[in-house]
Specification:
With 333 residues, the protein is of the alpha+beta class. It has 6 helices and 19 strands. The strands form 5 sheets. It has a 7-stranded mixed beta sheet. The protein has a 5-stranded mixed beta sheet with strand order 3-4-7-10-6, with helices on one face. The chain has a 3-stranded antiparallel beta sheet with strand order 16-15-18. The longest helix has 22 residues, at 296-317. The two termini are 19 Å apart.
Amino acid sequence: MKKVERSDNLEVISVYDLEEFSIGHDVDPEAITGCTVIMANKLDGLVAGADVRGGAPGTRNLDIYKPMNCYDSCQAVVLSGGSLFGLDAASGVEKCMEEHGIGLPFVNVTLPVVSQAILFDLTIGSKDIRPDSAMGYRACQNALKREHHPDGNVGAGIGATVGKISSPAQMMKSGLGTWCYKRGDLFVGAVVACNAIGDVVDPDTHEIIAGALDDSLKNFLNTEEFIGENITTEDFFMGNTTIGCVITNAKLTNNQAHKIAAWSHDGIARAVRPTHTMSDGDTLFCMATGDVPCAMNLVGTLAVKAVEHAIASAVRNADSLGGFKSRKEIFGE
């Protein structure tokens, strides 16, 4: 469990210790793809929001809890590899949740509202094996076990890579990261899979810590500078995305949950450079259980920082896989 004192009133805890949410993963280590489930354990007062900023998104079930529609929330969020094929994973999560009576009671059936976002990992491992209903079902079962998992090559992050502006040989392995702040009774956490075209920077030093490598494979190319100096067409680097979910026990309205989801994209923008490109499908969710009244500015500020640090943790803890080298291998960290 990671727990780091940050100040007298702000600390970092593990998202896996939160009683209000259960998080589980399932992976195919040979095909190098997987999915992650973030499920709310407290449905009374639960609200959710979502915000898409990337130009090439793949999502499921975002409209049902938009402010003008009939529900206030989803009960689970799925993050998945497999590109659009991976959207099948949510059906397995729905089946598992229905079996456990988790969802909206409706006439004679329980209806789980499961939202999803996908990332493109078909250039690593097997392009023919993707997260499906069975994998989603297992990930949901694993979430119910409430076990701890290390950041890095886990769940939707197992096939994630970053730094895709040049050749595949110059890309780096990424993964899935988590981070959670606690202040008094309030917590604000993030679960993020980073599969971006851009480079990832350290939240404290703002130096590049993962991304496109130069020809020596020992230094960074600097994607923003490379684009400014070289790019004139949109003919390459398709299939990238940073996806995630902010989880909190703050008391929010449905409108406010959407605002927090939108606000949290600042964490991606601070950690990934460039971000929200036309070939990224950047999507963030927010689920809030409604237990702790607090200021929106506090929730939004912590959400941005949690997303930013979760992305850094994803690349710092990733292991080399599928021919793509990790920061740990290249720089010995």
